[in-house]
Design goal:
With 86 residues, this protein is α/β, with parallel strands linked by helices. 31% of the residues lie in helices and 28% in strands.
Length: 86
C-alpha cells in the first residue's frame, strides 16, 4: 500500500473489536475473529484510506455489509476507502 515500515502502529478499539491503526488511521488492519457490523461501522467512522482484513473473518453477511458500509463512508469523506482482503 506504499506505506513505510517505520510508520507508527498502535492497537485500537472499534466498538469492542481490536484493530491495528497505522499512521493514525491511514491504514486499519482487522485480523481476529469476532468482527461485527457495529465494528465495521466504527472502523468506517475512523475514516481510514485503506482497510486490510483477513478473508476468513468475513462471513457472507459481513461481506455484503462491508462493501456498503465503506461505500457510504467513502461518499461522506469524499475519498475512496480501499478495502483489501488476504
Amino acid at each position: 500500500m506504499g506505506l513505510e515500515l517505520t510508520l507508527p502502529v498502535e492497537k485500537s478499539d472499534a466498538a469492542g473489536y481490536p484493530v491495528w491503526s497505522v499512521v493514525y488511521d491511514e491504514l486499519v488492519c482487522c485480523m481476529p475473529q469476532g468482527l461485527t457490523i457495529e465494528a465495521l461501522e466504527a472502523i468506517a467512522a475512523m475514516e481510514p484510506r485503506h482497510v486490510l482484513m483477513l478473508d476468513s473473518i468475513l462471513d457472507d453477511t459481513l461481506k455484503l455489509n462491508v462493501v456498503q458500509i465503506f461505500k457510504h463512508a467513502s461518499e461522506r469523506m469524499g475519498a475512496e476507502i480501499e478495502l483489501r482482503t488476504i
